[in-house]
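Re-run requested by the PI after the first attempt was lost when the workstation crashed. Everything re-entered from the original request form. Ligand of interest: glutamic acid.
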Amino acid sequence: MYRGRFAPTPSGPLHFGSLVAALGSFLRARNQQGEWHLRIEDIDETRCRQEYTDSILRDLETLGLFWDGVPLIQSQRHEIYREVLDNLNRQGYTYGCNCTRNLIKLNGGRHPASCRLENLPWEKGAGIRYKSSSSVTGFTDLIRGFLSRTDFPAENDFLLKRRDCYFTYNLVSVIDDHETGITEIVRGADLIPDTFGQLELARTLGYPEITYASLPLALSESGSKYSKQNHAPGLDLLSPVRLLLKAAVFLGQEYPSEISAASDDLTVSEFLKYAVRHFDITKVPVLSRKVPV
Ligand code: GLU
């Protein structure tokens, strides 16, 4: 059974960039007669707010993007993450790191290998890094074909837990994707650099491999991706079908004029029914593009 998911971070409202990821993963899952799950990635409580979780759920419902089961809330799963991390620590896959942000900045933005060499113990107040063997040199993306690690530089020894005690996205997303039985991950191409490390960590944890499909990113007029950090505007939900159509067209889907011209007369469920049936992942473009919103 196909199981997909959408995993928004509630650090701001849903914006056009996250709508593209939501719709792409939804259309793919439903087209495969699969389930589509929702995960609220609110592990970093300094950035996330309940009001954004509420508004994301509300917007998804207005857009007719209904999920299966109950949303998984990461902030309620600390015990599970701790247990997996304790096991990794015991098995020698990690080391303590007390590098400050400033030190990393002075080292050209990369973590200096010194604490790995010192094999610092995991102690209170220290971060915990994954001891990577860089064993995943590439993976085959459903939309992009084979992607090589060397083309997407990212920290090999990525953090699993930060010094301020928060578990990291890379740790918890790998655990949750496995525990919820996700079979394929459809998400923005900005996460390709993280995927190599996530695949390696999943392998270390003995999880079966998941397939990936990386969607193009919607860029603002200035060429930066719509993101909560860039204060992307929230969605104008006055014409939800028009919005869905715009996101689907951005994903390379083509519709006959009786669908595209009738967007004001269709309900979201009528539009989505059609879009699911005709969703074609081979039409999804690779390149990110500017989309005025
Ligand atoms: N939470 C991430 C975001 O909002 C997505 C993570 C993922 O899909 O793995 O960008």
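Saved to the shared folder this time. The chain has one domain: 3-290.
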